[in-house]
Amino acid sequence: MKTPTKTFIFFISICIFLAFTSGCTNTLHGDVVSINNGKIKLGFERSTGKLISFSDIATSYEYIDSAAVEGLPWLLDVAAGTPAPEKLPTKVSFQKPDPLTLNIEWQQADGTNGLKVIASVSLDKEKALSYWNIKVEGMGEQNIQNVKFPVIAGIKDLGNEELAAATWLGSLIKNPRAEVVKQKTPATYTWNHPGHLSMQLMALYNKESSGIYFSCNDTLAYTKNFSLTFDTNNKLEYSITNIPPFDNRIDSYQPAYQAILGSFRGDWITAAKMYREWGIQQKWCRESRFKNNLTAEWLPQTGIWVWNRGKSPNVLPEAIDLQERAGVPVNVFWHWWHNCSYDDYFPEYLPPREGGKSFIEAVTAARQKGVRSIVYMNSFQWGTSTDSWKSENAEPYCAKTIDGKTYEHAYNIFTNKSITPMCMATEFWQNKYASLCDSVINFYQASGVYMDQACMNFQCYDKSHGHDLGGGNYWINGFQKLTSLIRSKITDKKQSILAGEGSGEDWISNLDLFLTLETSRERYAGISNIESIPLYQAVYHDYAITYGSYSSLVYPPYDELWPAQYSPANKEKALPEDFNSQFLMEQSRAFVWGMQPTIANYHAFLAKDRKEEIDFLIKLVKTRYKALGYLLYGEYCRTPEINIPNQEIDISKLSIYVGRTGNNVSKFKKTVPSLYTGTWKSPDGAIGIALASISDKQLPVDFTINLSDYDLPSEGEVYVTTDSTRLLLQTYAHSKANIHFDMPARGVCVLEFIPKQ
């Protein structure tokens, strides 16, 4: 997993500040132009066009502190080194074409031609949502690089705030303002979409009172950034950075989508359900490979993924061993099979490092035993130190920054050799990568390719590539062409898959499988006020298969092609038993969040040395395998309130890139739930609640569920499904079930609520 390099771009922000009209206040009726739909109300200052009011009518809650609003709901950025506009539009006018729509226009104060900004804000007829459009005219040679809109300033502290963001699988940031005040440093959270923001969704809320729904309805995957800025004075500003094509021949710009701002009461699950209502109607879901049964038939049947690295003896026999122990299909997610050193000599993957003949024989023999392999190849990086970089003249086809430079970056701390992203929109890279996939799948007999960094998006400013410069949707369009080209070359299309790092709605129709690592977030990010949540699962679980975790019982491996002097002595040896509970936690999260389980760096000796943990994993995957209607094909639902005790566990933060120091594990403490839960509705209308205990003690489970909340009939039966049994627990009537049972130590089960036929 990697983080994209920062672009070496500096912006000159043109912040337009207008003084209040003398003697007037924002509260006077004549100074505010407003629209409302009976759900929400928006108010704009008449003299300036500032957004000074956003209120929920039902709760009478006002989200904006008008005294904290200093600027307009839009900002323009020009690129560094280019001239700023001489005149800015300051004269504002309003029109109401209908009761739910407000058009706002900013023109030149002296009536001359020049920059003009036109905004249109409309309210939903039935929901507490507003839709925001902007158009910038008279751009001429202004070199406008970004259009920030809407800019929602002065957002009040909601109290006990939580910020949910669709960062691939999902992140929940608790009390973000309190952390900023504590650190006495302003903080800006910025995510790119499509990219690290897997959906156009963020939500800031107090789950006991009110919340703000931030979204967008882009169906064509134009690049944009979502930002929330907290300052030390408790002020908050939200904005979307829209990125027009960087071309001074373009006189006007209007995004091909709307920003969405709304009010709601609830939590991140509430926001996810709001978004799902829109999301599953879009093209990516209609063309979902999983939903349309276009994935290889073995993929949904996968019981466990083994994520091992190196030559085949370190990978395939271990997967076969685990399959024999677990009795479910096991497949391999395979790094470091390739000829080149990891993270510096891409894409010189072929032939396999152990030799082509050995590799083919090993892969074929494993497949005959039911174990299939997908192999690692980065989806766009090329090493600038490789022979092929020069011999194949790759540099003209790599992505460029606005000043014509590459995004070159050294991930490999042992060699410090750089790699740089190729432009996904170029036929050169599409043909190069598709040719590699052709060889790997058709000749070397792999069952698929894992495309690292797939769900990412770069802005490219190279005029020779033939796409819009900077802004646009050429990256996703190029990725779609790439995957189509790969599949056109695959001989056995029904048995091969393409997987990718991350998750993203715009990739659902292109990839078969998504690696989402947030179940093991602590291993790469340590402990903070950010928690992983299954936000993506709550929206798209039944449209996209997810897997992946750094969850491991051993120290990290070390690539044999890296410098030997940095190789740690403890590589792939068992971690201290202190971290066993962390492994249980990670596997429990994946189970209840509806993911295909993954174990990293599995070795047969663990079945003895870490018997309880491997037995737990096997129990978990066997239970999941009996409940695929919920945990693979089901829709995420809210879990009934269950009183769950917490416990403190040891947490390891580790990496393949800390071998240089000899200390490749950092240790923390964390308080976590003793019982993990996730609720799912199967396609046939039953409800399944997955439960996994990491406690070494028996836990009482006691809760009441109202089945009408899940649109189930009033009568039915409750079963307990485990790895070895499925027993009737009780019946229910009148749409309610009072559940009482004891969860065994480290127990795993699915409670099934089956409607009466």
TrEMBL record:
Keyword Signal tagged: yes
Name of the protein described by the UniProt record: DUF6259 domain-containing protein
InterPro entries: DUF6259
Entry keyword set: Signal
Sequence ranges assigned to domain DUF6259 in this UniProt record: 253-550
Keyword Signal recorded: yes
Residues of the signal peptide: 1-30
Pfam short name (any one): DUF6259
PROSITE patterns from the UniProt entry: PROKAR_LIPOPROTEIN
